[in-house]
From TrEMBL, chain A:
InterPro entries: ABC-Purine-Binding (IPR052910), Peripla_BP_I (IPR028082), PnrA-like (IPR003760). It comes from the Bacteria. PANTHER family: ABC TRANSPORTER SUBSTRATE-BINDING PROTEIN (PTHR43208). Residues 1-23 form the signal peptide. This is Nucleoside-binding protein. One of its GO terms (cellular component) is plasma membrane. Residues 27-298 form the ABC transporter substrate-binding protein PnrA-like domain. Keywords: Signal. The keyword Signal applies.
From TrEMBL, chain B:
The chain crosses the membrane at residues 6-27, 34-55, 61-86, 93-112, 141-158, 189-207, 213-232, 239-256, 262-283. One of its GO terms (cellular component) is plasma membrane. Its main location: membrane. It is a multi-pass membrane protein. The keyword Transmembrane applies. It is found in: Cell membrane. Pfam families: BPD_transp_2 (PF02653). One of its GO terms (molecular function) is transmembrane transporter activity. Keywords: Cell membrane, Membrane, Transmembrane, Transmembrane helix. InterPro entries: ABC_transp_permease. This is Nucleoside ABC transporter membrane protein. Coiled coil: none annotated. It comes from the Bacteria.
Length: 358, 305
């Protein structure tokens, strides 16, 4: 009994190492990371963004990172630690840091905070995120073209709006190619557990899926798909190394330009609380090269990407039909409103599964 | 038919690292030492195991590296907890934190590299038998080894004199000492065995399960191994059942989701832990003669000279 309690405490103690170099009167910029920088996925891409920032403004700033910070109340302590260390601009890079960031932001009105993928803001707290669902839409088109079994396998992390809107965008796209396309969804209930992600990929393939998509962070699923001779999409970063004949494309997070822009604003004294939600047109993310597909599919994907970038194609163009067969109220004119996508908590028609918690 | 075979294969693969690590911890705890550093020893085993296999191209060398790394980690624990009689719980937790940091350092150069995973046995004819062929004759070496290991440990603990002495140290170190047994030396060997097993279990992950190294890839499996030892009430037979049951629940909950079974996935994910808690409650309610925890588990022993 005592043992399991201790196990829990230990889990909480694992918040990682602090790395910092001291220098006088340089702007101090802090980063809170969910995973290790070597996760090859989410955290890795944020670290790439930070490195781009240091390369650009390294003589004017000094950065500190905290790795392996668990989401939830424990994050508050980590964020506060960065504040006390003198950081004036702090990026908290995961959805689960939303409330902790807000709490610390209220406590320190003179420090500026930037929270990734959340929706709560304050005078000194911005949010930033990317319209990944646009990329998911392109993946849905490719998946429907490439699937022979007509069954797609989708590994979700947690049923939060960002993930749900990704599943919906994928299916809406796939249905334009194959109206009878099916998707099997498995929630891993974790962002990062290579073993479990691999197990989920195996289960999906064993149940007949032949194109695997993931919204978790490690390349494990890609590798299983590669082993079994199926196809898959990468996540967050370039994963083609783990499936040279498997990866169709990957949504690549490119945070560098945003970090540089925000730090420049901070340096110039023009920083203000904003809500940034960038799509393909804003370089918040990019698509990895389209590989392992015939030329006509590749062309279709490139055309769709161009149309989305130009604003001619919107994945959530009205009417959107919900799982219950009823039309979803269209609050954004011709398309669903941004707020509806950011808070998406329903499946579209054609998904047989039940959304957890619904 | 094929699906059932695929599920059994996945269950065996998911259970094997848990079984190996828990077997080691069972022996450690049976000698009266509580080493909570399994997760730390596992992750260092994973990093070193991958490094060994990547540098030499041999899975066997990788496994050996993992075993050595786990053993070295456990020696740090032995030095502190046995040699200097430091609190075992605190030392074990420190070992885990040390291991996670150390593995990141060792593995930093290998992130993004990949190796060819351990080969699976193939006997023409036998492996091709439907349903049971691949399950019995188509596994990788680790799976067979884990079964041999737990059988060996059972035989050692209950059928040899040395095993009896080890259990005596775990139940009453003062008496064992009075009878002239070198309690601390015996416990050191038990801790080293636990470390070797944890290192091997960790190495299994990058060598056979997901053939790449990423920091933190053990993702809490060391803690599960610790829970399994309690679940098994420190008995090898129950440990086997527990490990496979745990693996089965993990895999089946994924399949259940794919089939669209309407049980919340969060509940399914928590099920194995719930089972552990229930077993703990049952154990404490019904003390039916047989021993549960080794009586001297976790207590410091300083021989009087």
């Amino acid at each position: 009994m005592r043992k399991s309690l201790l196990a829990l405490t230990a889990g909480l103690l694992l918040a990682g190492s602090v790395s910092a170099a001291s220098a006088a009167d340089k702007l101090k910029v802090g980063f809170i990371y969910l995973g290790p920088v070597g996760d090859l996925g989410w955290t890795y891409q944020h670290e790439q963004g930070r490195l781009a920032l240091v390369k650009e403004l390294g003589d004017k700033i000094e950065t500190t990172t905290l790795e392996n910070v668990p989401e939830g109340p424990d994050a508050e302590r980590a964020i506060e630690q960065l504040v006390r260390a003198g950081n004036k601009l702090i990026f908290t890079t995961s959805f689960g840091y939303m409330d902790p960031t807000l709490k610390v932001a209220k406590k320190y009105p003179n420090v500026h905070f930037e929270h990734a993928t959340g929706y709560k803001r304050d005078k000194n707290m911005s949010t930033y995120s990317a319209k990944w669902y646009q990329g998911r839409y392109i993946q849905g088109l490719i998946a429907a073209k490439m699937s022979k079994s007509g069954v797609l396998g989708y590994i979700g992390s947690f049923p939060i709006p960002e993930v749900v809107s990704g599943i919906n965008a994928t299916m809406l796209a796939a249905q334009t190619i194959n109206p009878n396309i099916k998707v099997k969804i498995i929630w891993a209930n974790t962002w990062f557990d290579p073993g479990k992600e691999a197990d989920a990929a195996k289960a999906l393939i064993d149940q007949g899926a032949d194109v695997i998509m993931q919204h978790t962070d490690s390349p494990a699923a890609m590798q299983i798909a590669s082993e079994r001779g199926k196809l898959a999409f990468g996540q967050d970063s370039e994963m083609i190394k783990f499936g040279p004949k498997t990866q169709l494309t990957s949504i690549l997070d490119t945070w560098g330009p945003y970090y540089i822009e925000r730090v420049k604003a901070e340096l110039a004294g023009t920083w203000k609380s904003e809500d940034t939600w960038g799509g393909l047109d804003s370089h918040m993310f990019a698509m990895a090269p389209y590989t392992n597909m015939p030329d006509d599919v590749k062309k279709m994907a490139e055309d769709a990407q161009a149309a989305i970038t130009a604003g001619k194609l919107h994945p959530f163009k009205c009417p959107v039909i919900g799982q219950d067969g009823k039309e979803v109220e269209c609050k954004g004119g011709a398309n669903l409103a941004d707020g509806q996508i950011l808070g998406m908590n329903f499946y579209v028609k054609g998904i047989d599964d039940k959304l957890p918690g619904k | 038919m094929e699906l059932i075979e695929a599920i059994i294969l996945a269950v065996l693969a998911a259970s094997t690292p848990l079984l190996i690590a828990a077997t080691g911890e069972l022996v450690t705890e049976r000698s009266g030492v509580l080493n909570l550093g399994v997760e730390g020893m596992m992750i260092v085993g994973a990093a070193c195991g991958f490094a060994g296999a990547w540098l030499t191209g041999s899975i066997l060398v990788g496994a050996f590296f993992g075993i050595v790394a786990g053993t070295l980690m456990s020696l740090v624990f032995a030095l502190m907890a046995l040699g200097l009689a430091v609190n075992q719980v605190a030392t074990g937790l420190a070992l885990t934190i040390l291991g996670i940091g150390l593995s990141g350092l060792i593995g930093a150069g290998f992130v993004g590299e990949r190796i060819t995973p351990a080969v699976h046995l193939y006997i023409p004819g036998l492996t091709d038998i439907p349903l049971i062929g691949r399950v019995l004759f188509g596994e990788d070496g680790f799976v067979y080894f884990s079964v041999a290991l737990i059988v060996g440990v059972w035989w050692f603990l209950y059928r040899t004199r040395a095993g009896l002495i080890l259990r005596a140290c775990g139940d009453n170190h003062v008496s064992a000492h009075a009878l002239g047994y070198p309690v601390l030396r015996i416990r050191t060997f038990a801790v080293m065995f636990g470390g070797a097993c944890a290192g091997l279990a960790g190495a299994y992950l990058p060598l056979a399960y997901t053939p790449f190294f990423i920091p933190g890839m053990t993702a809490g499996r060391g803690w599960i191994a610790l829970a399994l030892v309690v679940f098994a009430s420190w008995r090898p037979g129950r440990l086997v059942i527990g490990a496979y049951l745990f693996g089965a629940v993990t895999i089946l909950q994924l399949h259940a989701q794919g089939w669209g079974v309407g049980i919340p996935s969060q509940f399914m994910s928590a099920l194995p832990y719930l089972a552990t808690v229930i077993v703990l409650v049952l154990l404490s309610r019904a003390r039916t003669g047989g021993s549960t925890a080794p009586a001297a588990l976790g207590t410091v022993f300083v021989p009087d000279r």
